[in-house]
Amino acid sequence: MTAKAIIPDDLKSYYDDWHMSPGLACNGFVFFTGFTGTRADGSLSSDPEMQIRDAFDKVQSVLEAGGMGFGHLVEMTSYHVGLRDHLDIFKSVRDSFVVEPYPAWTAIEVAGFVREGAIVEIRVIARAP
User: Fold this and answer.
1) What residues contact residue 4 under an 8 Å CB cut-off, 6+ apart?
2) What CATH number has the domain bearing residue 98?
3) Is residue 4 domain-resident?
4) What is the CA radius of gyration of the chain?
5) Whole-number pLDDT of residue 40
6) 70, 122 in Cβ contact below 8 A?
7) Does 55 score more than 90 pLDDT?
8) How far is C-alpha 12 from the geometric centre of its chain's CA atoms?
9) Which terminal residue of the chain, N or C, has fewer Cβ atoms less than 10 Å from its own Cβ?
10) Which intervals of the chain form a coiled coil (predicted)?
11) pLDDT surpassing 90 at residue 129
């Protein structure tokens, strides 16, 4: 098995500090770390739409660093604190990023995340070009 880390410059701390790859290409697929809406400076918007958008921006950063776009996604799992409170917002933001053919998607309610105040984490799998 040959695996290659995909590490955009804006997510290098994931690799250096947390010892995890933002994306890991393996056997024709790219497996992504789950991303919350925490920004590079450590801040976290109190606005659910901005948090969700910031999380999708991280996914986009890895996709672009790997020469891909949202059309390469095959599976998405989203984890939510207060799933029913912001599901419509999540779907609206997701629709501004995700394109056809739409990936399979599972949404899961969770009790919390490492970063206090985070309401969503997005994890995806993409098919490498």
Assistant:
1) 24, 25, 26
2) 3.30.1330.40
3) no
4) 14
5) 86
6) no
7) yes
8) 15
9) N
10) none
11) no
